[in-house]
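Notebook entry, structure prediction.
Reason for the run: the old model in the group folder had no record of what sequence produced it. Starting over properly, with the input documented here first.
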Amino acid sequence: MRKSSATRDHLPNPNIGKLAVLLSLLCAQPGCGQPLPGVPRIQKADHRKILEMVSQNHGNVTLVNVWATWCDPCREEMPNLVKLRNNYRDRGLEVIIVSADDIDKADSLVPATLKKLGVDFQTYIDQDSTDDAFINGMDPQWSGALPTSFLYGKDGRLVETMLGGKSYEAFEKEVTKLLK
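New structure, fully documented this time:
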């Protein structure tokens, strides 16, 4: 059973002082609090923020990919998304990657996995209050299956929902139709 904070406050902990000293020494090192080079930055975002980014990208094609570290097809398709972004971002494609992992993995497992998969750009982690809120907010027709990519046209409207892991060629075919 979880103790209330009032009860917890009255329990002495001799290690608190030692921990504070250790943390202050660690944070005195150069680069403390800064992301490691090559590790993608992860921001928390709910479905409203993701859809706002899509609408702000008006005039460009936007692909929003929802994935998770524990999802094999998600990890397998990620290099295809990186390649797609690199090949088409100068032609009007924005790729937004959103992790469906638990929010407490935002600073550990998610960035480590993304780095391993070659992602070196800003990504996001879902912070909606429930999975259903995120799923229904992104697309009420979406089952929540992962991976899923939402493809938005230059006008910001959802053009296609791509369920399951996709090849580079499958992504490229759909994106190039919209970039014309």
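Summary: The CA atoms of residues 84 and 160 lie 17 Å apart.
The old model has been moved to the deprecated folder.
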